Amino acid sequence: MQNICRTQLNAIKKFEYFNMLLMRTEVSQFREEI
């Protein structure tokens, strides 16, 4: 049971980190267009 929760937490952290990187790249591309 604890292993399942731990893997889910890791997946959520990875997903949030990926979203953060995605937002950062979109912002940098947006600045370049301007």
Overview of this structure, please?
With 34 residues, the chain is an all-alpha fold. Helix content is 94%, strand content 0%. It is built from one helix and no strands. The model has no long low-confidence stretch (mean pLDDT 84).
Features:
1 helix; single chain; about 35 residues; mainly alpha
Write the layout of secondary structure elements.
Elements: H1 2-33
Short description:
The protein is mainly α and 34 residues long. The protein contains one helix and no strands.
Radius of gyration over all CA atoms, rounded: 15 Å
Strand content: under 5%
Low-confidence parts: none
Measured between the Cα atoms of the first and last residue, the distance is: 50 Å
Question: By helix and strand content, what is the structural category?
Answer: mainly alpha
Main sheet specs: none
- Residue share in helix: over 70%
